[in-house]
Specification:
CATH architecture of the largest domain: 2-Layer Sandwich
Largest sheet: 7 strands, antiparallel
CATH class of the largest domain: Alpha Beta
Helix content: 25-40%
Order of helices and strands: HHHHHHEEEHEEEHEHEEEEHEEH
Radius of gyration: 21 Å
Strand order of the largest sheet: 3-2-1-7-4-5-6
Shape: globular
Structural class: alpha+beta
CATH superfamily of the largest domain: ATP-grasp fold, B domain
């Protein structure tokens, strides 16, 4: 009886998560010009998933991605299934907090270029880059900074809470507020870092934002496969490049390091061929892509509890990869890239049968 009740509760939780994402995609569908799927395409999708995961799937996402980029494929991953059932069979959910904390990247990635830390707050305790310090010392270290970035360190999503600020004699320049008010507004678990000076070719895409590479990597035994890489570009005057802040995404050819074609923004927007400052996207060369991908392959092996990871990298003025963050449940960039798992779709989906969904442990 206990097992039966537990099964009912798990199914209820899973369905609740699925419904949240279904509601979200229905909203997006209303905002764009939708191309309906044919009955044969619908049947093809269901045959594919019934064979691999043993059940039918909602086809809203197939319809949405097909409508946005003009490419139909049965291999698109429905976000509702991905978030409720797939990602936490690939990754170990209970371990997420300890590993994703941006304030302790120096433990897991001490040899990797990261934005220079000014101060950080971990569970209410202040530190400089290495040592515990007092709250007064932390404020003093930020009293005069020409430009810095402050952001949450736990479970931040879509660039939420990321802010650029300058401070002189303890006064935040853009709004005239006291520095202590800014730091206290973040509560605990945040970090203040020096702004990354990005490569001129990355800045050319949009100078106001740190434009980053999102790399999706998949671990299969001791091999790390790069599933795709996209470039995320901010809009004119914006500080962040996230799609939810109006940013745009474009797919990159892994062999040449060039943007394949166009970018995609909000559901209301058509294909975007130029950035806000007029830079043509097609064939635009991304600097240091191979260095970024080699770094991802190295770092992913260090995180054995996570088989699918989304990495965010900047490229600095010296053409070196700069790790911004890694994501334990990355959004899938299927509008810009197409089916997220590509040639590994069948392998990944079939492997789920042997894995436990750790989200509900």
């Amino acid at each position: 009886m206990k097992k039966f009740i537990k099964s009912i509760l798990l199914n209820y939780k899973s369905k609740k998560i699925e419904n949240i994402y279904i509601k979200n995609i229905k909203s997006k569908i209303k905002q764009c010009d939708i191309v309906s799927l044919s009955s044969s395409q619908e049947k093809e999708i269901q045959r594919y998933y019934k064979k691999l995961i043993g059940k039918n799937v909602p086809t809203y996402w197939h319809k949405y991605f097909y409508s946005r980029n003009g490419f139909f494929s049965v291999k698109y991953i429905p976000t509702s299934i991905y978030q409720a059932d797939i990602i936490y069979r690939l990754n170990n959910y209970p371990f997420r907090h300890a590993y994703v904390d941006k304030a302790i990247y120096d433990i897991y990635f001490p040899d990797i270029c990261r934005p220079k830390t000014i101060i950080k707050n971990i569970n209410g305790y202040y530190y400089d880059s290495e040592n515990a310090i007092s709250e007064t010392q932390a404020f003093d270290m930020c009293r005069n900074v020409p430009i810095a970035v402050i952001k949450p360190t736990l479970e931040g999503m879509w660039g939420e809470g990321v802010r650029l600020f300058s401070c002189e004699n303890g006064i935040v320049k853009d709004d005239g507020s006291d520095l202590s008010k800014l730091l206290c507004s973040y509560g605990k678990n945040f970090i203040v870092q020096e702004k990354v000076e990005q490569h001129p070719d990355m800045s050319q895409l949009n100078p106001s934002s740190l434009n980053t590479l999102r790399v999706l990597s998949y671990r299969r035994q001791n091999e790390v496969v790069i599933l795709y890489t996209i470039i995320r570009i901010g809009r004119k005057g914006k500080n962040v490049d996230n799609e939810t802040a109006g940013g745009i995404n474009a797919d990159i050819d892994l062999s040449s390091g060039r943007i394949i074609d166009c970018a995609y923004g909000t559901p209301k927007e058509k294909k975007i061929y130029k950035t806000d400052n007029g830079t043509l996207l097609k064939n635009y060369q991304i600097p240091a892509l191979n260095k970024v991908l080699d770094t991802v392959r190295d770092l992913h092996i260090r995180l054995p509890y996570f088989n699918l990871i989304g990495w965010d990298f900047a490229v600095n003025q010296n053409s070196e990869p700069v790790l911004i963050e890694w994501n334990r449940a990355p959004d899938l960039s299927q509008t810009a890239h197409g089916p997220a798992f590509g040639d590994y779709s069948e392998e990944i989906l079939l492997s789920l049968r042997e894995k436990i969904n750790t989200r509900y442990k």
